[in-house]
Every structure is written in C-alpha cells, then in structure tokens.
C-alpha cells in the first residue's frame, strides 16, 4: 500500500469522505424536490466542503511537501483518494440521497465525538467544530428518513429500496488497517470497531420507527481507504477537477 | 471577545500597545458581517483577540470562523485588514483558530436585541440544544415581529449556514432565526 505517514493518510480519509459526499450533495443545487430542501442540501454540502477544507489543509501541513487543501483536492487522481466507496455512489433519487446522508451522519456523529477527544489538539478542534454542524445534519436527515419511510406507499418503497442498496456499503465504516492501529496507539484516533454498536443502535432506532427493515446479507468488499474505488469516483473527479486543471493557478 | 490580560505599567507610563489594541477593537466593531450586516465581527464573536506587539510595529487579529464552510470568512479577513489599515495600523496579520469552537453563546444580549429589531429571531441557549433528538422536533422560536410563540419551522437551513426558516402563525410573517450553535 502506501508509505505515507499514518496521520497524513488518516486526515485524507476524513477530508475525502466529506469532499466527495459534499460534491454529491452539491449536485442537487437547483434540482431539489422543494425549494427548502434544495437550500438545505446546498447548506449540508457547504458544511462538508468546509470540514474537508480544514482536514485537508491539516493533512497538507502534516505532509510538509507544500501541498495545500486545493492541491490535494484538485491534483490527486482517483487512486490517491481515500474516501469510503459509500460516499462516491451516484446521488440517485432524493430518497437515496437522504438515506445515505442519515447513515453517514449517524456514523460521523460517533466518529467526531471520539475524535474531539483526540490527543492531537488541532484534529480534536476540527472534529469538535464539525460535530456541531453534524448535529444539525443528523437531525435533518433522520427527520426525513422518518417522514419518507413512514410516508406514502411510493415514498416508503423508495426508502426501502435505498436502504437495501446502501446497507452493504456501510461495512466499510469499520475498516481498519495499520494507519488506524498506529494512531490508536498514540491516542489520536479511536477504534473504529468500537463505534459500531452505538451506530447500529442509532440506525436501527430510526429505521424501525420509519417502518423500514434493515436488510440482511453480506457486506460489500472494501477498498476506498486504500485508493480502490467504484467506477463512479473517476467521473465525479473529472467534473470536480476540470476547472482547476484547465487553468492551473488561475485566480479570480 | 477574550479578556485582555492586564499588564502593569512602569512608573505610570502610558501602556501604548494596550491603548492601540482598544483603538483597533473600536475600529473592528465597525466591520459588519457581510451576511448579517446588523452585527459587527466583534459582536458575533468572530474576533477572539487583538494584540499589538510591544514595539507597536505590528498588530495580530485572531479570528475564528462561525461555520467551517462559511463563505464570508475570506471577505471578513480582508475587511478586517482594510479597516485597520484605514485606521493607521501597519503590518496587520490575521490568525485563524478553531478552538474553542465558535458558539452563538458569545453573542451578547445587546447584539441579540439588534438581531430581533432587524427581523431575525436571536439564538437560544446552546446547551439546551446539545441533544440530538432523532426525528421531528417541535421548537418554539418567538416571532421577532409580534413576539408570539405560535410559530412553525419551515426549514432547518436558510439563506446562510447560520440561519433557519420559520413562519409565525399569529402575524403570518415568515422570518429567519439565528440558530443556536
């Protein structure tokens, strides 16, 4: 795999999850089902982009090779990205976007809570700040899962279909490797596996109240943290990076 | 605004750096937030500290962003530098910090009153909102126009990251609320 320092790798994971998911959310701008949700989705995207900026800026500082957050966002190729495969999947319908957001927000809630107690002061500060934003995201996404799940026959069917498709991708939340082990030993990052029980409790609570059913079945293969992605990430990056790469160093 | 540490003055000499800091703060209190132009960056708690070095040659303003992705932040930094330079300061540096995380609890009562008069319902107590209730929440935000508590939430997200949308059932007025954060 990689020879980069563990903290740099870990910060890329945190930053890339939010950068890629934020980009997916931004695709809704001007296409939301109602005006309020169009605005809300753009707000969520903005928060995630802001969080990605902070994590990637810190990653660049840790790396010490002169790369800032823009260099990391726009000048890495697909295999250099460390995000979960879950966040790069196409946005689907509003039900799919909402269900993914809820699953991610609930996971992020437990992760950021743990990271806000990190021994790395700056990482802890960014996590604590991001968590304040994430609380609003989680409240919003859980409310919509309930409304659409326990809604009409059509909305319920779409939410169940979204959950069935998304659930196997959540296995990657618990992926850990030498990067995590090294940071865990230093008290910088939590044991990802320890977040599983509280996340499942939160997810099951909302899903059940939304009259939906958690699907069984196996989890997907993982790979995002090692730079192996679905065919969707390359297309996303092409769109996200085209302006920066067409006009290197451009200012306006 | 963080409390300035007290420094003793020798033989009753005037403490020039401290006087310069007070003057800088007064200048910064005239820099309005571009998205909430009724409040200054000092009232909002974005400005955390102002420090003039002992030689009086340079000034450092410490700021913290409201939300991580606040698009106004760069403009605010530029306006801070411009305001201080216009006031005669040289070598103005802006330092950004993230801890402690910005909170609406730093907005003083006088500024909350300005928000209300401007038509934005001021934020409530943050600690009361720490829990994440999963699912619909009924929150009573008092209407800034008629004061009624009979209001409903239209959306948790508004025209800027820091505001949500509400409507008053009593006076039928839609209004914005500065979210407790």
* Bulk shape of chain A: globular
Number of strands of chain A: 0
End-to-end gap of chain A: 38 Å
The CATH superfamily name of the largest domain in chain B is Fe-S cluster assembly (FSCA)
| CATH architecture term of chain A | Up-down Bundle
- State the shape of chain B: elongated
Mean pLDDT of chain A: 95
> Would you tell me the structural class of the helices and strands of chain B?
alpha/beta
- How many helices of chain B? 3
What gyration radius of chain B follows from the Cα positions, in whole Å? 19 Å
Could you characterize the architecture of this molecule?
The complex is a heterodimer of chains A (252) and B (181). Chain A has one domain: Ferritin. Helix content of chain A is 65%, strand content 0%. Chain A has ten helices and no strands. The longest helix of chain A has 29 residues. The mean pLDDT of chain A is 95. Chain B folds into two domains: 93 residues, GMP Synthetase, Chain A, domain 3; 59 residues, no CATH class. About 4% of the residues of chain B have low confidence. Chain B contains three helices and seven strands, in the order αββαβαββββ.
């Amino acid at each position: 795999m990689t020879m980069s320092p563990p903290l740099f790798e870990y910060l890329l994971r945190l930053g890339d999850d939010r950068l890629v998911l934020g980009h997916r959310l931004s695709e809704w701008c001007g296409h939301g089902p109602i005006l309020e949700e169009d605005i809300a989705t753009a707000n969520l995207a903005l928060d995630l982009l802001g969080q990605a900026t902070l994590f990637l800026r810190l990653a660049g500082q840790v790396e010490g090779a002169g790369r800032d957050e823009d260099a990391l966002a726009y000048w890495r190729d697909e295999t250099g990205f460390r995000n979960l495969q879950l966040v790069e999947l196409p946005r689907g319908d509003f039900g799919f976007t909402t269900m993914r957001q809820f699953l991610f927000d609930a996971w992020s809630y437990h992760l950021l809570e743990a990271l806000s107690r990190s021994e790395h002061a700056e990482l802890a500060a960014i996590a604590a700040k991001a968590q304040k934003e994430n609380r609003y995201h989680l409240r919003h996404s859980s409310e919509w899962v309930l409304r659409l799940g326990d809604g009409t026959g059509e909305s319920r069917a779409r939410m169940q279909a979204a959950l069935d498709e998304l659930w196997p991708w959540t296995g990657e939340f618990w992926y850990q490797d030498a990067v995590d082990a090294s940071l865990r030993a230093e008290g910088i990052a939590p044991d990802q596996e320890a977040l599983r029980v509280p996340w499942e409790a939160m997810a099951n609570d909302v899903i059940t109240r939304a009259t939906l059913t958690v699907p069984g079945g196996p989890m997907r293969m993982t790979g995002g943290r090692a730079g192996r992605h679905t065919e969707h990430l390359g297309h996303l990056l092409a769109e996200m990076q085209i302006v920066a790469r067409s006009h290197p160093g451009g200012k306006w | 605004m963080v409390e300035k540490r007290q420094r003793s003055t020798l033989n009753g000499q005037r403490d020039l750096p401290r006087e310069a800091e007070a003057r800088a703060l007064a200048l910064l209190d005239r820099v309005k937030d571009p998205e909430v132009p009724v409040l200054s960056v000092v009232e909002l708690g974005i400005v955390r500290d102002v420090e003039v070095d002992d030689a009086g040659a340079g000034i450092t303003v410490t700021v913290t962003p409201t939300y991580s992705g606040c698009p106004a932040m760069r403009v605010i930094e530029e306006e801070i530098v411009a305001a201080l330079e216009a006031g005669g300061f040289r070598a103005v540096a802006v330092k950004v910090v993230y801890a402690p995380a910005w909170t609406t609890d730093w907005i003083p009562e006088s500024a909350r009153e300005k928000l209300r008069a401007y038509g934005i319902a001021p934020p409530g107590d943050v600690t009361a909102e720490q829990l994440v209730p999963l699912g619909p929440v009924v929150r009573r935000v008092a209407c800034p126009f008629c004061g009624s508590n009979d209001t409903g939430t239209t959306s948790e997200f508004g025209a800027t990251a820091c505001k949500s949308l509400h409507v008053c059932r009593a006076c039928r007025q839609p209004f914005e609320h500065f979210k407790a954060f």
